[in-house]
Amino acid sequence: MKKETKIKNILIQNNTYLIFLGLVIVCALLSNTFLTTMNIRNIALQQSGPICVVLGMLFVILTGGIDLSVGSVMALGAAAAAYMIVNWNMHFILAMLITVLIGLVAGAFTGILVAFAKFQGFVASLAMMTMARGLALMITRGAPIRMEKDTLGTLVNKEYAYPMLFLVLIAILIFVFIQKYTAFGRIVIAIGSNIKSVELAGIHVRRYLVAVYAISGFMSALAGIFIAARSSTGSATIGNAQELDAIAACVIGGASLAGGKGNVTKAVVGALVLALISNIMNLCAVPAYPQDVIKGIIIILAVLLQLMTDKSDTTV
Amino acid sequence: MEQSQYRLEMKHISKRFGGVQALNDVSLQIEPGEIHALIGENGAGKSTLMKILSGAYKRDSGTIHIDGREVTINNPKDAKDLGAAIIYQEFMLAPDLTVAENIYIDQLSSGKTLINWKELNTKTKEQLTKLGFDDISPMAKVGSLSVAYQQVVEICKNLTRNAKILVLDEPTAVLTFAEIQKLFGILRKLRDAGVSIIYISHRLEEIFELSDHITVLKDGTFVDRVETSSINKEKLVTMMVGREMSQMFPPRNAKIGEEVLRVEHLNAGKMVQDISFHVRSGEILGFSGLVGAGRTETMKAIFGAAKKESGEIYYFGEKTDFKDASDSIKKGFGMLPENRKEEGLVLTQSIRSNSTFTILNNKIAPKQVINHKKEKEYVRNLLASMSTKYKDTEDNANSLSGGNQQKVALAKWLAAECKCLVFDEPTRGVDVGAKTEIYKIMNDLAEKGVAIIMISSEMTEIIGMCDRAIVMRQGRISGEFSRAELAEDNLIKSAMGV
Questions:
Q1: Cβ within 8 Å, pair B360-A186
Q2: A191 to chain B: closest CA residue
Q3: What's the mean pLDDT when you consider all of chain B?
Q4: What pTM value is reported for the model?
Q5: B347 touches chain A (CB under 8 A)
Q6: Residue range B8-23, pLDDT digits in tens
Q7: Per the domain annotation, does A259 fall within a domain?
């Protein structure tokens, strides 16, 4: 291969990172508050929840499925955790554990519909989307549940060096490891590429389908806890349209909704790209409605770039 | 202008797919108002020739003449404009639209905003009556019609577009006897009205009943064009077969040992009826027959990839039920699927991961974690043992040629160390050199004591490789031949029910 094309390929293959880098530079030039510790910490705390959702969503997308219920399961998670802590006086760590289990069960339910009842992921998760939101509203009875600061708030306590950020970092590392070094990671992406072939090679495809939706539910509930932690409030209305941001992040990170293509670190960076766009527009005082338009345009540009990557892939 | 006696002439057509010469200097001449049968074994080139006529494939060389005039057919629209229509086994009909809508679908989108339904339905009724099918309602949904009537609609649709050359590819495969007779009636009527019909079928009786001329193809070459009345079945079969055996098949010294697999009275749907057979260690058992005879369905039912209805399977003398693919592999029974692009490989994943799917959860990553270095080395050795040519184990499987792709698809079954292995059309779309290499791999396995079942539509392959062969026809076993009895005319007669 010629040196030029080699360099070109490297650039194209890392385009998610390049978009991110370019965006950081632009942001730094546009606003001098952007590169302050406070702003960066704010972004990190804000994005902890969404990144967890993206991690779970990516695995579902890799199998060729989609999980629309993530936002509602977030709300369910936030509501359930707050309810247990306030009404049952439960220790917040125990409440967290039970909450992520609830997310796991909700996700597994979606997964069973997909794997065994042959629902399309879109439809199964659509049903879970309304059910989880309804459950969350039932738990909170429509009003946010306020918690004491020393419960879930501990996760964002400055004195403990923001434990939540460590949890997110560990989650990212675990997902990177799963994708790169485990049989599970390989089978998940292979299912999205050609489910029939994988099944005929003796792999229990259905178990993996249930697992990815269960993981997505788990991560969504965790995200709900993180959101609740920041405001010390369990609200049933959080996570609205979160599924769309999560899908956009995966796609900006090079994932294909047809399955079989996608990368954990790139998807996380995709989430950060979206976060930076919102952040810089807030810093520059762009009003909320134009923000959405600009965000949409940037998603389109990012995906166009990804399609270029696809073309370079086929000329192996 | 030169006046021709032929409606359609295809002269010296050649077509290559990669390393495979699908058509080599083939000619076809069709008169106006005749029914012309096109016959040959699977892979003889009939479909390829017709796809060139319809514009689905581009020819490498040769010319096509219609009514004496040379024409260019570069895409399906050219063919349609010239009046050549192909009716495939799967119809190009929209099941939820009505008969009239389907027949005039091209005019529905011709720019007029409003559709005169009354006129459309009357026109449709006229056309159907002309064919003798005034019992089909123009307002009926196509999906609610029987397959035979759908076929009539498809034919009618093409006739309204002034088709003067009509190609029917195995039209009777899904029809009942009465329906076949009705179809023949239409075809004769059309012939008398001057339409030229090319009729592709494996059913010799039909060809003798219906056709005026026969063109025989074999291995992508033209054999002969004869008048139907001048020939009999025996002679026709001889024309279709009887090629010399090449040096393709490497010698084998496997010892045939104990029985490994025995299947008794297996039933699984229409394509698998009362199948019984057995295969021994070191033996290569062939499954011959036409495409769609139920061979793949039989093996998939045994392998656990499709549902069984009844029947017993004995594996090493013990009654066994292979629950699913995973269970089969655990017990040492493997199956290399027929279509490597759809079932055999995960094309967009690496050669390495493709080679180890069957052993990923035990040998490669027993505790889930993959040791990349070890796995790469394992795969390199595995592929080297099959003399596979590739650049890097990390390249995607679709970067390989057909033969090497097939070896990678096979790698995971060698890795699984099967004691009984089904090869479903192992050399389809593979060039000659790689074919011999795949045969050698099969021989090596047999010598190691593996029991092998090979499904193949190529009779030379069955004869060259197998110790014994079973022929299937329409979901049933129609013959079994020992090595001494293996000959093309035996196999073809059994496959066609002559």
A1: yes
A2: B346
A3: 88
A4: 0.79
A5: yes
A6: 999 999 998 766 778 9
A7: no
Range of the domain at A62: 47-240
Cα A295 from Cα A293, distance rounded (Å): 5
What is this model's ipTM? 0.86
A197–B345 CB contact, under 8 Å: yes
CA distance B342 to chain A (A): 7
Residue among A183, A199, A204 minimizing CB distance to B370:
A183
Q: Does A96 touch chain B (CB under 8 A)?
A: no
Dump pLDDT digits (tens) for B83-125.
998 887 667 788 899 999 888 887 776 667 777 888 889 989 9
B354 and A189 in contact (C-beta within 8 Å)? Answer: no
pLDDT band at B242 (very low <50, low <70, confident <90, very high): low
The count of structural domains within chain A is 1
- Cβ separation A202–B328 shorter than 8 A: yes
**Is residue A109 included in any domain, yes or no?**
yes
Q: Is position A233 within any domain? A: yes
What number of helices (H) and strands (E) belong to chain A?
A: 13, 2
- Contact list in A for residue B353 (CB cut-off 8 A) is 186, 190
Of chain A, the end-to-end C-alpha distance in Å amounts to 10
Cβ of B349 and A200 within 8 Å?
no
Distance from CA of B357 to the nearest CA of A (A): 6
Q: Which of B348, B363, B364 to mutate to test the interface with A (most CBs of A within 10 A)?
A: B348
CB contact burial B352-361 (16+ within 10 A = b; e otherwise) = bbbbbbbbbb
Rounded distance between C-alpha atoms, residue A157 and residue A174, angstroms: 24
pLDDT digits (tens, 9 = 90+) for B451-480: 999 999 888 889 989 999 999 999 999 999
**Once rounded to an integer, what is the mean pLDDT over residues A66-75?**
97
List the single residue in A183, A190, A204 with the smallest CB-CB distance to B364. A183
Residue A1: is its pLDDT beyond 70? Answer: no
Rounded Cα–Cα distance for residues B86 and B135 (Å): 25
Cβ–Cβ below 8 Å for A203 and B346: no
| B160 class by beta-carbon count within 10 Å (0-12 exposed, 13-18 middle, 19+ buried) | middle
A203 touches chain B (CB under 8 A): yes
Domain assignment of residue A141, yes or no? yes
* A203 contacts B360? CB cut-off 8 A: yes
Number of residues written out for chain A: 316
Instruction: List, as ranges, residues 179-198 from A with C-beta within 8 Å of B.
Output: 181-184, 186-187, 189-190, 193-194, 196-198
Pairwise CA distance, residues B337 & B410, whole Å:
9
* Residue A27 · residue A276 · CB < 8 Å: yes
Among B76, B19, B81, B16, which residue's Cα sits nearest to residue B50?
Answer: B76
In chain B, the domains with their CATH numbers are: 8-240 (3.40.50.300), 259-496 (3.40.50.300)
In whole angstroms, give the CA distance from residue B456 to residue B242. 18
